[in-house]
Amino acid sequence: MKRLKTSQRKEIPVLAEVKRVSSILRFLLPAIVIFCFLLIWYCISALNLFPAYALPSPAAVLMSFREEMLAGRLINDVVASLWRVAVGFVVSVVLGIPVGLWLGQHLNARKAFVPILNFFRFLSPLAWIPFAILWFHIGDRPAIFLIFMATFFPLALVTMAAVANIPNIYFQVAHDYNYKGIELLTKITFPAVLPQVITALRVSYGIAWVVIVAAEMVGCQDGLGYGIWEARNGLRLDSAVCYMLIIGLLGMGIDRLLFQLTKLRNVRWGYER
Amino acid sequence: MKDKHSDSKLILEKVSHNYAAIAVLKDLSLEVNQGEVVVLVGPSGCGKTTILNLLSGHIEPVSGTIQREGIIRTIYQDDGLFPWLTVSENISIGLRSIPGAERRKEELHELLNLIHLDGFEHHYPHQLSGGMRQRVELARVLAGDSDILLMDEPFSALDYQSRLRMRWELVRLLKNRQRTVVFVTHDIEEAAQLADRVLVLSARPATICRELRIEAPRPRGLDDNVVIEAMKEILKELGLHTSDNPDA
């Protein structure tokens, strides 16, 4: 007992030290890489290797960021894009996950629907642009439609595969304890696939965020994609780079939010085993 | 400790079963008495798990009749716990049919105590050792008003010492809460230490080729004479005794 105590006293500060160093490194290492990247960018533009209109300098990008913020366009575009992605994505989740759960439980339905679902999954959502504009005209709706087309199929298919692969033993145990119908679905099937569904959410959100830029270039009068398109038309690549930075950072930020879902206590098993 | 005194019954009569063209069981008859521990031993692939699945009702036999009375629960080799539920939530599944939240809570505490896992109620299965997980499984099947426990090689995924410990544990728990048990294993020691009756099965299609009663009280030590004698008998029946070895 005594021995245990002394060894604990020694170990805990060492462990804390290791933790502290690793958390410093976690921020320091990427910070160094990003700094180097910016430095190279600065050097290339300072040496005038490319004309200023073809490769804007970091200073010019900062200036255009200030300009876009003051004009209010940037905020407006960010809100517009986030709104479209959110609506399209939520519709996908609300329809795609139940469809996946249902298909996962019915072998014949799977046989019937999987080929066509796969077909649509491999059809780039951008191919729908002509129809999106024809059916929904200009505005939020074509973009939302494209986000839906981009995310529904992967979500439904991943959920379906996860349900189909639930170990049979869970259903045997559920049978022993009289789980049936809705209760079986909500207490056994759904929690059994939740870790994989969360991963699918992150992946399909990534697709949505990529698609929104392209969708807004053609179907909208605002939004981040439209901002880039406008910058191109005005040959303002400094503004385009500014929009690109915002798109990348926002995408990363929202993925961090979705990543928090994987920290729920009742899904940890799916990532730690 | 058992709060209910219903009669449990488990009878197989001339049951045969086959998967596609492969006959797994042939005219198997078996009656398990209330409160009895029956252990089925046999070569691997002889259809032991099929017998349990027939007893539990997960599959229906091709011919023959099966009578079941009482609440039947199964313990599996590994991973029968729901990984998204904590230890107490998993055990509580066994208490589902008990009315009254207060009573369920009391029972849960008693069970946690019984398997010596108080303090672990909020842990998830993947945070426990294999032996601890099997103890939680035992608590879950013993919970509430179960009558018959079917065990499908429940300790075979554990290391040898944990396996020995789990046998004591099972004996202790059954003393505390009497149940009818059908236990399938390939472990001859396990059979000799736990069984009231050992049934040695033949290779596929399985029939009972030897029935062996062991009268001694439990717990039985590995080096007890009854246990050693029983092991000899079983080994002989399986053709694995030293006297069967042509090189010996």
Comma- or semicolon-separated keywords:
heterodimer, A: 273 residues, mainly alpha, 0% strand, flat, disordered N terminus, B: 248 residues, alpha/beta, six-stranded mixed sheet, three-stranded antiparallel sheet, 24% strand
Overall 3D shape of chain B: globular
Number of helices of chain A: 11
Helix content of chain A: over 70%
Oligomer classification: heterodimer
How would you describe the overall organization of this protein?
The complex is a heterodimer of chains A (273) and B (248). Chain A is an all-alpha fold. Chain A is built from 11 helices and no strands. Chain A has helices spanning 2-46, 58-71, 73-105, 107-122, 129-136, 140-164, 168-176, 181-219, 224-233, 237-260, 269-272. The longest helix of chain A is centred in the first third of the chain and has 45 residues, at 2-46. The model of chain A is unreliable at 1-9 (pLDDT under 50). Chain B is α/β, with parallel strands linked by helices and 248 residues long. In chain B, helix 2 runs parallel beside helix 4. The longest helix of chain B is centred in the last third of the chain and has 17 residues, at 160-176. The chains are: A mainly alpha (273), B alpha/beta (248). Chain A binds chain B through residues 167, 169-170, 172-173, 175-178, 188, 191-192, 194, 265-270, 272-273, and chain B through 56, 58, 72-74, 76, 79-80, 82-85, 93-94, 96-97, 124-126.
Condensed summary:
The complex is a heterodimer of chains A (273) and B (248). Chain A is mainly alpha-helical and 273 residues long. Chain A has eleven helices and no strands.
Provide the fold topology.
The complex is a heterodimer of chains A (273) and B (248).
Chain A lengths: L1 H45 L11 H14 L1 H33 L1 H16 L6 H8 L3 H25 L3 H9 L4 H39 L4 H10 L3 H24 L8 H4 L1
Helix pairs in contact in A: 2-10, 3-4, 3-6, 3-8, 3-9, 4-6, 5-6, 6-8, 8-9, 8-10, 9-10
Chain B lengths: L8 E11 L2 E11 L4 E5 L6 H9 L6 E7 L2 E4 L11 H7 L7 H14 L15 H13 L5 E5 L7 H17 L3 E6 L2 H7 L2 E5 L6 E6 L11 H14 L10
